[in-house]
Amino acid sequence: MVYAAYSAGRLLARGDVSTAVDHGLAILHFEQRLNIDFESPLNDIFTAHAAIGIPADFAYASLHYVLTPAILMWLWKRRKSSDYRFLRTWLLVSTIIGLIGFTLLPTCPPRLLEASHGFVDTMAQYGSYGWWGGDASAPRGLGGLTNQYAAMPSLHVGWALWCGIALWRHGRSVWAKIGAVGYPLVITIVVMGTANHYFLDAAAGAAAMGLGALLTGPALRLADTVRARLRPARETATAARTAGVPANVGDKCETSARERERIPRQQGGGADRRRKDGGADDGGRGAGAGAGGRSTTATGGTAPAAGDGAAAAAR
């Protein structure tokens, strides 16, 4: 989801071509004055030697999209939730910083400058060996779905640096340590040798990751604050949905209480009817019973004897 938003943002951030070219030339001239335009000799090597240029093009077109989510899933599966949450948020915040850079500073990459500046687009040169076309790493026919002037900062380098730090901190084997150091270095060389980025683009990608790391802690605290404020609202909504619906135990208790109240009344009414019926049908026997030691009531029922006083009182 984050990458889809990032890609959509790159499309929305397409700037004026002339402005992007001016920014690219300004970066190149600044590097030349400081003798840090490492992309120029590297591009000459990649262009002259297909054994170097072709693997570099494959690395540029694929590793960015494969290794980053693979390492993210590995962290989710193997590491503590707090470690995963920090690294995931760091990647998100840094990507947003990169998107801001694309928006504010559209930059023409070296490969799209005029040929007089000496750069060759190796991905176009070796395009017959891969799935990409002349539009950076986009597959053939899909060049319109990418922003070719989103060169500053280089998130290829930024995400590779994130992968390297994650492997260094949480990898256990020697190979993990080697990959942690080698992968960011290889990607940095690849993005310059293929003429997709200037050296300062790569440096800006590393700086974006550094700034993202500093902002990750505040971002996590903000997320915790928002979650804490939303939790009472969710609990209130849940209570409102369940209001008026008694729990299972409550249902049984209420039913039992009603039954205990209803059954004695039914029993009492039945006893009254029997006493009335007894007075009408057994009047003669009432006198005989009185002679036998029990006195009769006016309705024909039998009054308890003296020995039955305690039981009657108890009832």
UniProtKB/TrEMBL annotation:
Query: Can the keyword Membrane be found in this entry's annotation?
Result: yes
Q: Which GO terms describe its cellular component?
A: membrane
**InterPro entries registered for this protein in UniProt:** Aur1/Ipt1, IPC_Synthase-Related
Statement: the UniProt record of this protein carries the keyword Cell inner membrane: no
Q: Where in the cell is it found?
A: Membrane
Keywords on this record? Membrane, Transmembrane, Transmembrane helix
Q: Where is the segment annotated Disordered?
A: 233-315
Q: Which domain of life is it from?
A: Bacteria
Q: In what way does this protein cross or attach to the membrane?
A: Multi-pass membrane protein
Q: Which residues form the Inositolphosphotransferase Aur1/Ipt1 domain?
A: 26-214
Mark out the compositionally biased spans (Basic and acidic residues). 251-264, 271-284
Q: Which residues cross the membrane?
A: 87-105, 149-168, 180-199, 205-223
Q: What is this protein called?
A: Inositolphosphotransferase Aur1/Ipt1 domain-containing protein
Organism of origin is Streptomyces malaysiensis
State the taxonomy lineage.
Bacteria, Bacillati, Actinomycetota, Actinomycetes, Kitasatosporales
